[in-house]
Write a structure and sequence with these properties.
The chain is mainly alpha-helical. Helices cover about 70% and strands about 0% of the residues. The protein contains 9 helices and no strands. The longest helix is centred in the middle third of the chain and has 34 residues, at about 85-120.
C-alpha cells in the first residue's frame, strides 16, 4: 500500500494556490465588470468588482481544491439581467467574460514562465535558481489551472457559462426552458466527474491549448 507523502501534498498545494486564486478572481471579476458596464449595478453593490481573492472565495470550492489538488470554484457574482437592454445578449456577454479572462491569464502565465525559463537556462546564480524555479513551477500550474477553468466553464451545462453563451443563440422561450435545467446542473457535473467523463472531455482541449502555449 503506497504511503501518503504529506510534504509532496503540501508542496503541490503551494504551487497550485497562486494560480487558482488568480484564475477564480479574474474569472469572477470579469463577469462582474461586464455586467456592470452593461448597466447592472448588482456586482458593484455586492463588492465583487475587485481583484481581492477573499471577496470571491467559496469555502466548499476551496476545500475541494485542497482535497483534489485539481479543481475548485468561487462564489458566483450576482447578476440581474433585468438591467440589461437585451437580457439574453447581456447574459451571453457576461458568460463569455469569465472564460475569456482565464484564457488571457493563461497567456500571461505562459509569458512569465518563459521569462523564468530564460533565466534558468542562462547559467543562473544559486539565488536566481531558488527564486525563479519555484516561480516557474507556479506559472506552469497557473497555465493549466486557467485553461481547465476556462474550458470547464464553457461546457453547455446550466448554470455554467457555456449555457449562457449557448442560450444567447436560442429563441427566448427555448432559452428559458434550457436554463431551467440549472437546478440539475451540479448533479450532472458531479456524475461526469465521478465517472471520469469530465476529465475525458476537458483533457484533450486543455492539453492542446497548453501545447500551443508552452
Amino acid at each position: 500500500m503506497p504511503s501518503f507523502d504529506i510534504f509532496a501534498y503540501i508542496q503541490k498545494l503551494v504551487l497550485l494556490l497562486p494560480g487558482f486564486l488568480l484564475a477564480i478572481t479574474c474569472h469572477e471579476a470579469a463577469h462582474g465588470y461586464v455586467a456592470y458596464k452593461l448597466g447592472d449595478p448588482t456586482p458593484k453593490m455586492a463588492g465583487r468588482l475587485t481583484l481581492n481573492p477573499f471577496k470571491h472565495l467559496d469555502v466548499v470550492g476551496t476545500l475541494v481544491l485542497v482535497l483534489t489538488r485539481m479543481i475548485g470554484w468561487a462564489k458566483p457574482v450576482p447578476v440581474d439581467p433585468r438591467f440589461f437592454k437585451n437580457p439574453q445578449r447581456g447574459m451571453m456577454l457576461v458568460g463569455l467574460a469569465g472564460p475569456a479572462a482565464n484564457f488571457v491569464l493563461a497567456v500571461v502565465f505562459t509569458i512569465c514562465l518563459k521569462g523564468c525559463a530564460h533565466v534558468l537556462l542562462t547559467q543562473p546564480s544559486p539565488l536566481e535558481v531558488r527564486l525563479f524555479l519555484p516561480l516557474a513551477l507556479i506559472c506552469k500550474e497557473g497555465v493549466l489551472i486557467s485553461l481547465v477553468l476556462g474550458f470547464f466553464n464553457l461546457l453547455p451545462i446550466p448554470p455554467l457559462d457555456g449555457s449562457n453563451i449557448l442560450a444567447g443563440f436560442m429563441p427566448p422561450r427555448t432559452a428559458m426552458r434550457y436554463m431551467s435545467f440549472g437546478r440539475y446542473g451540479f448533479i450532472i457535473i458531479i456524475l461526469l466527474a465521478v465517472t471520469g467523463v469530465l476529465g475525458q472531455i476537458l483533457q484533450p482541449a486543455v492539453m492542446y491549448a497548453a501545447q500551443l502555449l508552452l
